[in-house]
Specification:
With 143 residues, the chain is mainly α. The protein has helices at 16-32, 51-80, 87-118, and strands at residues 43-46, 132-135. It is elongated and about 65 Å long.
Length: 143
């Protein structure tokens, strides 16, 4: 009689592959939500350039990329240890989620700034350049 010793998927521990897969799926979703073609957000017409708004946008994207790198780094650390604690993959997934929440918070702050900048009266001849159409993407955690 052959008895299978495989455990069901729900009974297994998270492994390095799970950490990378889950982390990268979350990061891909976070990047997709920041592409205006895939989602619709509040639109703001900005008459003057804002380096602070540009900085916030780049910071949010850097946090999403850091989340993807954290998923990879966590998987490498898990793979490098022969026997790891079952909490280690969960810790790395918490780090990934924390970075994505931070990116959403930065985006929400950017939307607040865009709302303030667009609240000034719009005079066509007074703009520094062709008015910029800023589309806010506050994310999953900040509405």
């Amino acid at each position: 009689m052959n008895v299978s010793t495989e455990q069901p998927l729900l009974g297994r521990k998270l492994n390095a592959g799970h950490v990378v897969a889950i982390g990268w799926v979350l990061c891909a979703a976070a990047l997709a939500e920041r592409v205006p073609r895939f989602v619709s957000g509040h639109r703001y017409l900005l008459c003057h350039a804002s380096s602070a708004l540009d900085h916030l946008t780049l910071t949010a994207l850097a946090l999403v990329m850091a989340a993807g790198m954290a998923a990879l780094a966590g998987a490498i650390m898990i793979q490098a240890k022969d026997s790891y604690r079952s909490a280690l993959p969960v810790v790395w997934l918490v780090v990934v989620v924390a970075l994505l929440v931070a990116a959403d918070g930065v985006d929400a702050h950017g939307e607040e700034l865009a709302a303030k900048l667009s609240a000034t009266p719009f005079t066509e001849g007074a703009c520094d350049y062709t008015p910029q159409d800023y589309i806010a993407t506050p994310g999953w955690f900040f509405w």
